[in-house]
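Hello K.,

You asked for the raw outputs rather than the summary table, so here they are, unedited. I folded two proteins back to back in the same session to keep the settings identical. This is the first:
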Amino acid sequence: MNSPTDPGFVQLLTPDGRRVAHPDFAYPGDDASIAQHLRAMVLARRLDSEATALQRKGQLALWPPLLGQEAAQVGSVAAVGPRDEVIPSYRDHAVAIGMGVTPLELLRTFRGTDMVPWDSRALRCHLYSFVIGTQVLHATGLAMGMRLDGMVGNPDPDADGAAIVYFGDGATSQGDVNEAFVFAASYTAPLVFFCQNNQYAISVPSETQSRIPLYRRASGFGIPGVRVDGNDVLAVQAVTAWALDRARRGQGPTFIEAFTYRMGAHTTSDDPTKYRERAEEASWRERDPIGRVRAYLRSTGAIDDLWEGHLANEADALAEEVRAEVPALPDPDLADWFTRAYVRTPAGLLRQQAEFVAYEASVEEIA
């Protein structure tokens, strides 16, 4: 169950950095595009480590690390088209950055100074979902609306769009996620269900949640399912591009199980040493998504010490920027939040806002 050895397992780049062929999927890019994937993964990992350190220093309230899942996120977001919509979960930092969200915008959410400060409509990257699985239903409704708006199966493919929603293996045990599968299949929604199976729902192993591989459960809903090496950025992009293309052409949803591993904690409030063995972590470290891409590009001569030196400098600059700007973020003014619930703030809320402002001023006067 927890082994990638499965007849449907899609892999194009082995853990030791060798390209391999697959009968149904191929990576469309060249070594230059693979190098850009490596850059994106390295920067995402550096942001992740800095955010973890900031939380430990009390500068962030919480942080859910993406360590180990960089290929699943970078490869999938690389397949997103100009009319597609992205609905992330709370760990999909590389996805958000790939859609144009800035690192500081991400961190403002986890510091508590803002609630998802980016323009989700302009970037087509929707708000983070912190309640497990809710975004899967939201994405299904969005995709159903896209179909009703005539955004699938057009003579001009540039007029077509689809949605991709991210969630983990734990979310597949949620009832509303399974309801989303039913509705997406019934209404041929142009939607890709992208499940990052990182082997644990916090501390619960995936084999406890499902007696068969997760991608095979999709067939019960009439949805095609594919298991891809989630640590292989090339395979992830190839499979996601295929799934999004069939969605845009009006062929309905696809379930992708990106078989990966959460190398870090569930969040910074978690201690994974309580429920998994060091040997297991070591075995997955050998399948590191960044290491295999680096090994491949080194073998072809596409990157060298100079290239990696420039990337290291870029990562250092990102870390320095984050360390400097996060502590300087201004504290939110509670009075502003009364007008953020509705497009047109009801009179009752405006009265409450005025009462709060008056109360706050009276306390300040006493102090």
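The second followed immediately with the same parameters:
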Amino acid sequence: MPNIALYRKYRPSGFDEVIGQEHVVQTIQNAVADGAIAHAYLFAGPRGTGKTTIARLVAKAANCLHPVKGAPCGKCQNCIDISEGRAMDIVEIDAASNRGIDEIRELKEAIRSTPLALKYKVYIIDEAHQLTKEAFNALLKTLEEPPAHALFILATTSADKMPATILSRVQRFDFKKFSLEQIVQKLTAIIKAEKAKADNEALRLIAHAAQGGLRDAESMLAQVLAHSQGVVTEKAVHSVLGIAGLQQVCDVVDALAKQDAKEAIVRLNTFKNEGGNIEELFASLIDYLRKMMLLKVDPKLSDVIMPELTKEQLSRMMAQSEKFKQEDLARMLETFIEAEDAMRKTSIRILPIELALLKLFAK
């Protein structure tokens, strides 16, 4: 099976296909339906949460010849041209590589002219926080007195780096990370569409590793599909992505419960030698210990801090937590966080973990 960009192939083509950002979609649909589209929007949120995708859908909805309750029809010539990337009036700018004042000056000059075919000229500026101070000042003047045919959509992963003068002239929407269940739902739909096969636990493993980023999850799935002949199993995910499974984390935790530094070190090195990502396993271990500690504070926190775990996995975690005192878990976490920081300062990534284990269980 070829390694295809699944996040592009299965990118939503309409508002009804968007998951996880319903608060954004509904507000914008209402604005389009009421003819009250703002001249500038700011989409802020983590990477891979759909900011650029929804920006393109807004461009489509604003220019659709026959919108349906504020949503693009997907059938008119304008919708088709935008979907196929042929619309000259839709301009996407990557501020990470086009961040200077010259690029913004060119934009100011171009925006004065009327659209070639559409109702609105739409400028989508990705990673907008990376614009220079001079570029922001030039953009500010355009935002203060925008032409009636202009629509700006700024996307950023760092809204705190955006100047207050810009923030005061845009309508802001904050994008949320996707829940594990939302990501699994989308991956399951992709597997079905690709006529592939996947274990549910394998998809949950990918979803958990993506940390709320749907695009990252789709990219990971594409990697596994390309190397596993269309069958996604936990073993394939571990092998291709080097992701630590819950079983591997639990095995290390069992060694910690026995205060057996040797066994923990052997398990960590075995994982590394088999091609696993030791940084990823250590991060998963820290996260697991944190959840165990919070469970000891109040078992009712489980629904909030670990929704990705099945009932069986939660039961195992609770059983393991009984082998530790709360203060012991806190001490381990403090030691491991120091080790995680030290990992960035050495070429032997596993060494700080080994030293931390020897320090914790020194006789």
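Residues 278-297 form the longest helix (20 residues).

Happy to rerun anything if the numbers look odd on your end.

Regards,
P.
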